[in-house]
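ARCHIVE CARD
Drawer: 12
Card no.: 0347
Subject: one protein chain, sequence and derived structure
Cross-reference: see card 0346
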Amino acid sequence: MSLKSSIRTIKTLGKGVVVGIPEAAADHDPVELFGEWFQAARESGLYLPESMSLATATPDGVPSVRMVLLKAYDERGFVFYTNYESRKAKELEANPRGALCFHWGVLERQVRLNGTVERVSHEESVRYFATRSRGSRIGAWASKQSEPLSERAELEDRVRRYDAEYPGDDVPLPPFWGGYRLRPESIEFWQGKADRLHERLRFERSGDGWRTTRLYP
């Protein structure tokens, strides 16, 4: 983190606790409210404010969770990218439901989302893949994500192989790699407060709109 970001983070410390969740927030579109909180997190100086935990489960209910990065969001949902042969992808293909959680500690805020998950279009994946650094694109080809790796040298050999196969900047999208979009059925905003009397505001889909409920901490 840069010195500028560190100073900004210190200045932001506790800001969310003081502000809280105003009553008017219940009338917001939750995606718009998320955008306001996300922007505040980005301005706070936090490292990777787009990081989020992604929870998936097998069809028989065995859960797993890991950190991924939010790459896009709008009224359709929240997008992340991965290898389609990874554990997370296999679980999502078999049980297309997931949960996300953002935690912005300096603001004492978190946002939790639950919903259905589906692949983004091939065109969306192609466009996003083209924005990644060349090294990251080569890495996507080289990694058999979640598969056993006998030794680091094996991965490094695969990197060299694809580096040679795609020598220029035109590294194509692997057929086994792309994005998923979580379409939220519920979004909960959590704001830390003194004495653990936190504020919680939950939005749940209701027809074409949202139903809001304030919850006990």
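Annotation on reverse: Confidence is low (pLDDT under 50) at residues 5-12. DSSP finds seven helices and nine strands in the chain.
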